[in-house]
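Hey, resending since the last one bounced:
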Amino acid sequence: MAEESHSRPRRSGPKDPEDPTDSTDPTAPNTAAAPKAPKTAAAPEGRSDPADRPVALITGASSGIGHATATRLADAGWHTLLSGTDRARLDELADRTGGRALPEDLSKPDGPARLAEAALATTGRVDALIASAGLGWRGPYARTPSDTLDRMIEVNLAAPLRLVRLLLPGMLERRHGRIVLLGSMAGQVGVRDESGYAATKGGLTMFAESLWYELRGTGVGVRLVLPGAVDTPFFDRRGTPYQRERPRPVPAERVADVVVATITTERDRLYVPHWLGFPARIHGVAPGVFRRMASRFG
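The structure tokens again:
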């Protein structure tokens, strides 16, 4: 998902379509056209038929990053399948963008299976999965409510793994697809009083990394987006407002622009804002130095 905390060596010769060596600014606006599906008969009311357009399944589309991403993709010509737990907001978004609301509670172990089945029944395929649903909690780990920890594990980690497992075979058969996972800086460097949340996002990062190696050359790309603090209802829902001096929260629309860029370009790991890649690299090569900096400035 580009500009990585670890480096992959550049190679000479023809470029592998899944080899992320693009060194341009990964947060620049994306202008690449969405890929096209085979043509079918025109749909009524002036809309193109979903079969004419690539299909994206977006979790967490009720609000925040998922909501903004769905809007961006619809504007770019994608047919969007919108999942979340707020049916009213999903219906409003679907009416506005021409997408399809597929409400589902991913905190339930069978939620991902129901969602994947509904998505495939609706459009017959999913060209891009954007797993942006997420839950958080802040406080001493010993005081983490058990049900909150269980829900974080299900939504942040288990649900994306299950959805990928269900949708990946179709992508591999078509030799085309994108899997975009919303990680977090907390999962890269750790954050005090967010141990459970950081663990779920760290697990998602290693899943993305391992799957990247596995899927090279298949036509299916794995993308990881690593935001810092984002100005969304996330902090209200976790019960604790954002309290750090830095980094300041960025708009959800800025993250959505990066998500769209990861789908239509070869960049596979992106930090939002981009400069967060620097402390991530320091943490990787000199964790002691990073901890001293975090104690002073965090």
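The chain has ten helices and nine strands.

Sorry for the duplicate.
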